[in-house]
């Protein structure tokens, strides 16, 4: 019976991780959509009101960098930013805490 409980827990854990991943991807696409829409409006405003003084590229560049890093994190391009790294780091910290407790016992 204990094995069945653990299998259910693992399935629930997998579901939770998948759901979290989908939420992160959804958040990235929301950010990307906002970036594109707002920057189109900013380009239009800049070109309409002051075509001799272009400033629209500043938010385009800086927000764009934010969108790129958001995408790199969500799609786990860099291992340091990914879930696997987080889980290994959590396990490492838990192991160190367990070692400390074992020393004092």
UniProtKB/TrEMBL annotation:
GO terms for molecular function: kinase activity. The keyword Kinase applies. It comes from the Bacteria. The lineage of its organism: Bacteria, Pseudomonadati, Bacteroidota, Flavobacteriia, Flavobacteriales. This is Histidine kinase. Residues 17-95 form the 2TM domain. The chain crosses the membrane at residues 28-48, 60-81. Keywords: Kinase, Membrane, Transferase, Transmembrane, Transmembrane helix.
């Amino acid at each position: 019976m204990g094995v069945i409980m653990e299998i259910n827990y693992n399935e629930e854990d997998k579901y939770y991780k998948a759901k979290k991943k989908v939420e992160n991807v959804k958040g990235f696409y929301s950010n990307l959509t906002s970036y594109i829409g707002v920057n189109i409006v900013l380009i239009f405003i800049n070109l309409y009101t002051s075509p001799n003084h272009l400033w629209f590229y500043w938010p385009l560049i800086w927000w764009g960098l934010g969108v790129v890093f958001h995408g790199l994190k969500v799609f786990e391009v860099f291992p340091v930013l990914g879930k696997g790294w987080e889980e290994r780091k959590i396990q490492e910290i838990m192991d160190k805490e367990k070692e400390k407790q074992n020393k004092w016992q």
